[in-house]
Amino acid sequence: MPNGLTLIHHYDSNTPMVVVNVLYKVGAKDENPNKTGFAHLFEHLMFGGSINVPNFDTPLQLAGGDNNAFTNNDITNYYETLPVANIETALWVESDRMLQLDFNEQSLEVQKKVVCEEFKQRYLNQPYGDAWLKLRPLAYKTHPYKWATIGKELSHIETASLEDVKQFFYKHYGPDNAILSIAGNIKFDETVKLAEKWFGGIENRNISKTIITPEAEQTEGRYTTVKANVPQKAIYKAYHMCDRLDINFHATDFISDVLSGGKSGRLLNSLVKEQNLFSDINAYISGDIDAGLFVVEGHLNDAISFDRAEQAINDELYKLQQQAVGENELQKVKNKAESIFVFGQLNLMNKAMNLAFAENIGNIDWVNTEIDLYKSVQKEDIQKVAQQILTAGNCSTLYYEPK
Amino acid sequence: MSQSKTINLRHVAPAINLVDSLPVPGHTKLKLGNEIILHLLPEANTIGFKLDFYFSAGIKNGQHPTTAKATFRLMTEGTLLKSSEQIHESLDFFGSFIDKEVSFNYSKLTVFGTQPNFKDIILIIKDILKNPSFDKKEIDLYINREKQRLFVDLEKTQSLCKRAFAKTFWGESHPLGQPSEILDYDALKQEDLKAFYKNFIRPGLQQIVLSGCCSDDMIETIKEMCLSIKTEATSEPELLSDHIPLKGLTFIQKDPSIQAAIQMGTKLINRKHPDFASMQVVTTLLGGYFGSRLMKNIREEKGYTYGIGSSLQSIAGVGVLSIHTEVLNDKWEDTISCINSEIEKLKTQLVSIEELQTVKNYMCGNLARLFDGSFAQADRLQMLISESLDWEYYLKYLDAIKNTSVETIHYLANKYLNIDNFTTIVVGSK
After folding, report:
1. pLDDT at B238
2. Last residue of a domain, one of B227, B261, B281
3. A151 touches chain B (CB under 8 A)
4. Burial class (CB within 10 angstroms; exposed 0-12, middle 13-18, buried 19+) of B257
């Protein structure tokens, strides 16, 4: 649109509903290192009312709608699902908070407390809850992925001021830094007309991209030990991997599937079932837009030492470097990827979000074509990536030990 | 369009259209061999399918609830013909994944996959349903994993609260009042699992729901499979005695803890009672959605919590109204008095027409969302099957919500809500 807002439309005649998804290209990585947790706190404030909509939730609930939002290191994403006849209610509230949030002290004070309780509930008040709070600063030294979305520490949230909030809004929120994705039983012309009606008058804010220095290559293994009130030992091994658009991304994703996809992964079969070293173990990728992490995470059985457990993980990773995966094994992870692709298209909200995510990383066609990139991965690609990233020097290891 | 014009239109909320019907599907029911019923909820333009198998075998049938859960979990971990590893290797190869759920009076095995692999997937499932081996090695692995999981759970104030509530509320002789303990896992025996399978699961397959892609070929494959599965009427367990929950507050010390977990609950009417739908409106108004009174009071005004909720569920034939939250450690007493005063307010003051309209519209919209797509509709069928109801139920339910008046809310709150009847558990550090 002329004001810089990107509009995406998807038509689905089989549903009585519509999904309105607004993605803002701001996440924890855009934060000031001394004011972390801000993007997420801000997401809470976005429900505190705007200039013409004093209460955000009530109009949506009256319209039979449901809404929520989430923040990660890269983006902040807001969404509404409601009967298609009431789409204008969603467009009204979303465009109004894009136009101007109602900055007020009361809302800020309460949401600071709510976010602190969220911090405690999700990260501090449960065993292993703070693992990622420890792992991030170990793996990243310069890149802002070094802090978690919830923030580095409670004090950063506690000291946020109304002035900080205003600055953050005008620095990151505006039509030119957002993607509006609408999916449901509504035609293209009507969607454009309504998007122009509600969002067309909001001025472009000339938002500039945050400049981020990429993380320098890690050449030496890093280790740290946490002692806490946990029932069993746990180990986290994080390896730097490529970014979301990199040619190696899909092969890297497949490595995690070969190791622990479904219930037939190598780690489960070898380390849990055959060798009895772990009660459970998983491999996964962080899925960030910038260069992310490939993680192996497991809980050790009683009386198993960290040395022995870690050696066993290393042996499995070494096998991937020494020998290409089997034809069947490769076909298995490809079939799984295809299945996930099919199921991802069955849910309206998924479709609206996936369109916005794909557009945000710069390639909207990926909602349809990324599956082909998965299908074209060769076993040699997997072996090559394993050799590149699964090395001791590229790894940050966190040992979690019962007090 | 000029800027000023755009701004002006913002002062007034757009007009709203109410949800006045539900896309209740006209689904096909087929009677297969051996008295098994197949429900079809087809969706065009997808090759993805979901297949739910319902067994009349729930935790009420086991000697101990842990037995029922373990049997159902381990049923997919090896058959007389194939090892657990071989089964999962082939399921993964065909891009299939399975999900299991054990509830009070039934259990459910769900299989997801795509149409081209349907026959191959069904071959594996048929083997699982007919020949599970309950291998000793797999049982030991399961016990180890579940025990470790339980150790982690026992460190969480929220889990401790839930467990203590279950025991106090249902009574320790009721299957729902017996959360699994370490000792229960140690006591699991191969022969008990085999017996539970033989007596309840094997003869208990009664309903199958296919949603998503439903081709004639697929239906034929299911028909053939069912011919070789025998079902029998299973004996109903004895009726459970009506336990009267211990009322009042129990505080459980857990050090260190950063937040206190609270769960409150009381027995109420079940789903088949004529007041149930309107009582759902009362519960939603109190704490069932983001704009609820409890969320406004405890989260949005006081900032004590990240979330608080209330729900009215029909469990094991009993209606259960419960409220749960995790709050600042030194604010749990204040939280409980706020909850009590919100309940009192419902009994003494009439709700405004606007607030009631908001809740009702939210609930109707939510109901419409629950019918969006064939997979979602298959999930609705789950409740209908387990409670022996039909789609008509949802249409009546929608009407009942729409017809709930300000006076009804006031009347029902007085009829059913009594603070003195609540069982309250708090876990935290003093």
Report:
1. 59
2. B227
3. no
4. buried
* B265 & B388 share domain: yes
Q: Is A37 left (phi over 0), alpha (psi -120 to 50) or beta?
A: left
Kindly determine whether residue A200 and residue B141, on different chains, have CB atoms separated by under 8 Å: no
Q: Tell me the C-alpha distance between A211 and A32, whole Å.
A: 12
Do B289 and B215 share a structural domain?
no
Q: Is residue B7 part of a domain?
A: no
As a whole number of angstroms, the distance between CA B222 and CA B123 comes to: 10
Judgement on whether residues B80 and B167 belong to the same structural domain of the protein: yes
Q: In this complex, is the C-beta atom of B134 within 8 Å of any C-beta atom belonging to chain A?
A: no
**Count of the separate structural domains present in chain B:** 2
Residues B44 and B120 in one domain: yes
Can you tell me the distance from the alpha carbon of A198 to that of A177, in angstroms, rounded to the nearest whole number?
A: 17
Q: Are residues B56 and B185 in the same domain?
A: yes
Only one residue has tokens 């439309």, namely A9
The answer on B205 and B112 residing in a single domain is yes
Q: Output the CA–CA distances (angstroms, integers) from residue B404 to B19, B21, B275, B397, in the order listed.
A: 15, 16, 10, 11
> Is B20 part of a structural domain of the chain?
no
Domain of residue B149, residue span: 28-227
Residue located via tokens 């009942």: B400
The CATH classification of domain A6-199, taken from the options 3.90.550.10, 3.40.140.10, 3.30.300.30, 3.30.830.10: 3.30.830.10
Q: Is the dihedral of CA A17, B14, A57, A156 positive or negative?
A: positive
B376-392 residue pLDDT tens:
999 999 999 888 899 99
| CA distance linking residue B270 with residue B158, whole number of Å | 26
Closest-CA distance, A87 to chain B, in angstroms, reads: 9
pLDDT at B236 over 70: no
Residues B161 and B254 in one domain: no
Which of A337, A272, A312 minimizes the C-alpha distance to B92?
A337
Residue A62 in contact with residue B361, Cβ under 8 Å? yes
Asked if the interface predicted TM-score (ipTM) of this complex is over 0.85, the answer is yes
Between the CA of residue A116 and those of A113, A197, A289, B304, B323, what are the distances in Å?
A: 5, 38, 27, 9, 22
Of how many residues is chain A composed?
403
- List pLDDT tens digits, range B110-133: 999 999 999 999 999 999 999 999
Question: Which pLDDT score, from 0 to 100, does residue B2 have?
Answer: 43
Report yes or no: B145 and B73 within 8 Å, Cβ to Cβ. no
pLDDT band for A14, please (50, 70, 90 cuts).
confident
Chain A CB contacts of B89 below 8 Å: 264, 332
* Digit-coded pLDDT (tens) for A215-239: 999 999 999 999 998 999 999 999 9
Q: What is the CATH number of the domain that holds B100?
A: 3.30.830.10
Please state which CATH class domain A222-402 belongs to: alpha beta
Q: Which amino acid is at B421?
A: N
- Determine contact, residues B324/B308, Cβ cutoff 8 Å: yes
**Residue pair B425/B250 in contact by the 8 Å Cβ criterion:** yes
Query: How sure is the predictor about B3, in pLDDT bands with cuts at 50, 70 and 90?
Result: very low
Compare CB distances from A262 to B88, B257, B359 and report the shortest one's residue. Answer: B88
- Any domain includes B17: no
Contact A89, A65 (CB under 8 A): yes
To the nearest whole Å, the CA of B395 is away from the closest chain A CA by 16
Q: B387 in a domain, yes or no? A: yes
Q: Helix A105-119 vs helix A38-45: angle between axes, to the nearest 10 degrees?
A: 120
B310/B411 same-domain check: yes
- A250-271 residue pLDDT tens: 999 999 999 998 899 999 999 9
Q: Does A83 touch chain B (CB under 8 A)?
A: yes
Q: Which A residues, 233 through 252, put their C-beta within 8 Å of a C-beta on chain B?
A: none
Instruction: Write down the domain spans for chain A.
Output: 6-199, 222-402
